[in-house]
């Protein structure tokens, strides 16, 4: 048996990725600006996030902070805070309380540096009339007026990344640019995303977004406190999605959407803690998950208070 076949599928994929980077090195001369220097090659040949040691990661973060701060004319910090031990995040949403106000959407946009003019929303709030087939996510109403909510005879279902335990998007990514972290958050390395959008096709919840243009964010609205795997400003041509506000939750804070909800419909906590609110809800409420039959095992739970 060859040395290559003894490696895990992930290691073989990374080896192929690095081989391809080397193989196209000559061709890349035409893609890089004229007079490209060692600094440009350093960016092009950046290692996968999970491959870098502490010294390499520190060097990359310092470079990215300089680049990003210069581009956005604002001092930006990029955290690499790791998953908290013995924590697996879970989310709960009380459909009997949600009033469809979309404050969660706007708080998410502000916290996570989503594009304004070329709108990119990680949360979509769906409106259904009583008696409608709520499981039909694709054909539900997304563009209702939030000035009139809550409407009589209507109910609302916010949908975002379900942070699957068995995420099909991860399996679909040919560049290994997306993966599941130890705390259950499915993340994306924007520097490794090749923009193929296979992950978007694989996601049964329509939770991923593609940047068709450079994100448009007013300088005075840019959130400078960012995480490498979360809300740092993205690039044109990459995919992004909800990360449970990784820059907040790994510091012990709540996601922005949970904090802003005016009716307390959103819950968040540690699934491994039997005393957490999310575990109480799972044990004592009528809980369901979207498209459970697909075996994605979402860590996003919907429930009714009564």
Structural commentary:
Strand 5 and strand 6 form a beta hairpin. 27% of the residues lie in helices and 15% in strands. It has ten helices and twelve strands. The strands form five sheets. A four-stranded mixed β-sheet has the order 10-2-12-11. Among the domains are: 28 residues; 136 residues, Alpha-Beta Plaits. The N terminus is likely disordered. With 306 residues, the chain is an alpha+beta fold. The longest helix has 19 residues.
Task: Tell me the Rg in angstroms.
Answer: 21 Å
Average pLDDT confidence is: 88
Q: Can you name the CATH architecture of the domain at 89-164 and 245-304?
A: 2-Layer Sandwich
The ordered string of helix (H) and strand (E) elements is HHHHEEHEEHEEHEEEHHEHEE
The amount of beta strand, in percent, is 15-25%
List segments where confidence is low: pLDDT < 50 over at least 5 consecutive residues: 1-5, 19-32
- Helix/strand/pairing class, anyone? alpha+beta
Supply the number of helical segments: 10
Percent of residues in helices comes to: 25-40%
Q: State the separation between the terminal residues, measured CA to CA.
A: 59 Å
Give me the count of strands.
Answer: 12
Q: Sheet with the most strands?
A: 4 strands, mixed
CATH fold descriptor of the domain at 89-164 and 245-304: Alpha-Beta Plaits
The strand line-up of the biggest sheet is 10-2-12-11
- Indicate the CATH class of the domain at 89-164 and 245-304: Alpha Beta
From the spread of the alpha carbons, the general shape counts as: globular
């Amino acid at each position: 048996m060859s040395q290559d076949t003894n490696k895990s599928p992930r290691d073989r994929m990374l080896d192929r990725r690095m081989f391809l980077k080397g193989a196209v090195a000559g061709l890349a001369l035409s893609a890089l600006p004229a007079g490209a220097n060692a600094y440009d090659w350093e960016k092009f040949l950046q290692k996968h996030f999970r491959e870098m040691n502490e010294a390499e990661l520190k060097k990359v973060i310092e470079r990215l902070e300089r680049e990003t701060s210069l581009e956005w004319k604002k001092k930006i910090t990029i955290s690499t805070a790791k998953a908290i031990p013995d924590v697996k995040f879970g989310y709960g949403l009380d459909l009997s309380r949600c009033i469809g106000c979309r404050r969660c959407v706007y708080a998410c946009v502000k916290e996570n540096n989503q594009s304004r003019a070329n709108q990119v929303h990680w949360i979509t709030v769906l409106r259904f009339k009583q008696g409608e087939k709520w499981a039909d996510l694709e054909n539900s109403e997304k563009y209702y007026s939030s000035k009139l909510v809550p409407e009589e005879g209507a109910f609302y279902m916010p949908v975002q990344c379900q942070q699957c335990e068995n995420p099909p998007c991860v399996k679909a990514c040919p560049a290994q640019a997306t993966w599941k972290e130890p705390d259950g958050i499915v993340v994306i390395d924007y520097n490794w995303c090749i923009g193929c959008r296979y992950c978007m096709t694989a996601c049964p919840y329509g939770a991923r977004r593609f940047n068709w243009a450079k994100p448009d964010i007013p300088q005075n609205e840019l959130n400078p406190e960012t995480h490498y795997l979360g809300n740092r400003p993205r690039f044109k041509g990459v995919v992004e999605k909800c990360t449970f506000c990784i820059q907040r939750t790994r510091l012990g804070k709540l996601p922005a959407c949970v904090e802003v909800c005016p009716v307390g419909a959103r819950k968040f906590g540690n699934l491994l803690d039997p005393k957490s609110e999310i575990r109480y809800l799972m044990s004592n409420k009528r809980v369901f998950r979207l498209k459970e039959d697909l075996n994605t095992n979402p860590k996003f739970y919907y429930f009714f208070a009564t």
